[in-house]
Amino acid sequence: MALDSPKKILQDVRKVLQLHAALGLESYVKSEGICNFLERLDTAAPDQPKHEALSVKRTVSVAEKPEKKVAKLAPQQTLADIRKNLGDCTRCGLHEGRTRILFGSGPATASVLIVGEWPNRIEDAEGLLFSGEDGGLLKKMLQAIQVDINDVYLTTIVKCRASEENPPQKEHIAACRPFLLSQIDVVAPRVILTMGPLAAQSLLSTNKLLVHLRGRLHRLKTIPLIPTFHPSYLLKNPEMKKAAWIDLQLAQRELNR
Ligand code: SF4
């Protein structure tokens, strides 16, 4: 097979850089924390030193992390109250395909609240959100920004199983939304990370594509909200991890304020 000419290679590189610029990627950072998260990409460039900073961006270490400045007010209701109100919910058609309701998990005092899209088949069977490979990558994403998984509350925009072939429709999302908003009120996180397009669109009440929503800070009431990719998408599209890293750094910056 004939090798591409240097001119063709340069044209391809230019196209990739233009795509990254359109996604809001202004630099390519390599640090100790992100190497683990980006490992699939590292294998594509084995000669590069692992911890080389291609563009130096300072991050605040755990030791420097300031104390939470704002004390949370005692919530009017608890997560247990919301779960009780949800009951054995049949408010939308998704209840027909579920094994169980996956309400959410994590401490009510969590600093970070992650909103995924829907429980998938495996999560529905195992009774655990972000399980399997998705969960493994999520842990690496959090480690990369020095967030302890025990300081994270995990939930989804709908609490019953759906799939990429049959994603939740507007009426399903609307039926479940009050419970999600109540969870957010109770946890009152310092940062919300939405993972996947539907999660961002649902909480931001927009139809904009994720590519136009991610890479910047939004707010839900006063809470910083940062849209990014779902781990399952990143597993299939590892070249997008660098864009996700930009989003994660935004979250880290908010946590370190
Ligand atoms: Fe109820 Fe939400 Fe499940 Fe619909 S997705 S049945 S609203 S718990």
Helix-strand layout with pairing:
Blueprint: H1 6-22, H2 32-37, H3 39-44, H4 79-86, E1 112-116, H5 121-126, H6 132-144, E2 152-156, H7 170-187, E3 191-195, H8 197-204, H9 210-213, E4 218-220, E5 223-228, H10 231-236, H11 241-255
Parallel strand pairs: 1-2, 1-3, 3-5
Antiparallel strand pairs: 4-5
Helix pairs in contact: 4-7
The structure holds iron/sulfur cluster.
The site of iron/sulfur cluster has 14 residues, from helix 7.
Folded structure, characterized:
- This protein is an alpha/beta fold and 257 residues long.
- It is 42% helix and 9% strand.
- It has helices at 6-22, 32-37, 39-44, 79-86, 121-126, 132-144, 170-187, 197-204, 210-213, 231-236, 241-255, and strands at residues 112-116, 152-156, 191-195, 218-220, 223-228.
- It has a five-stranded mixed sheet with strand order 2-1-3-5-4, with helices on both faces.
- Helix 4 (79-86) runs antiparallel to helix 7 (170-187).
- The chain is globular and about 65 Å long.
- The chain starts with 5 loop residues before the first helix and ends with a helix.
- Iron/sulfur cluster (SF4) binds next to helix 7.
Total number of strands: 5
Largest sheet: 5 strands, mixed
The proportion of residues forming helix, as a percent range, comes to 40-55%
What general form does the structure show? Answer: globular
Bound molecules: iron/sulfur cluster
